[in-house]
Amino acid sequence: MTLLSVRKVYQGIADRRQMFRMFDRHAQRPNRCEDDASALYRGEWFEIGQAEHDHMFEILPPLWMRGDMFTMREFLTGSVTSVFLSLTIDGAPRYFHGYCDLADKSSPDRMRVAIIERESRPVKAMTREERLEHIWSSTHDDYRGYAGERFAEDLRGARTVLCYGGQRGTVLKLLDQLTEAEISAKLPVHLLLPERQAA
């Protein structure tokens, strides 16, 4: 999957359990201790509740605070760290977590702009990429993983999920290669708006 520079990775408001799980949604990746995972995390964002936002503010003193955002002092990988945002969108206060690469000083502001633009759309339909990211984020670790030796060499390391294959039983599929029917089967019904409405 080609990673977009700033991307929504979970639909809805993540509760505390889901928020902590989402902080490292790539934990099972191959060669975890050997690679620089900055590109995997950089630009990911999702919505959280006010209580989760405030809880994270109280954990440690932030690295920096600016108006409607603050960053965590601890870095996830390289120069990528958590940025928490408190934004007013369509007159309502909302709260978000994102990963920004602080080596690029403009990345927190680009994330803020992208979140406001995405969440201000009149129709909240999801693009195919957002649907796949939501499936990855909401699938239990036991049912998602990374392509191994069963796959062609050029596909190894790509994200996989288990799918119901009818008479074939459960099958392991590349996340990027899910059909629209498989995507629909994995999404809650309230997230099944047609993609054409997302533009």
Automatic annotation (TrEMBL):
InterPro entries: DUF1419 (IPR009862)
Domain of life, per lineage: Bacteria
Name this polypeptide is given: DUF1419 domain-containing protein
Native species: Nitrobacter vulgaris
Lineage: Bacteria, Pseudomonadati, Pseudomonadota, Alphaproteobacteria, Hyphomicrobiales
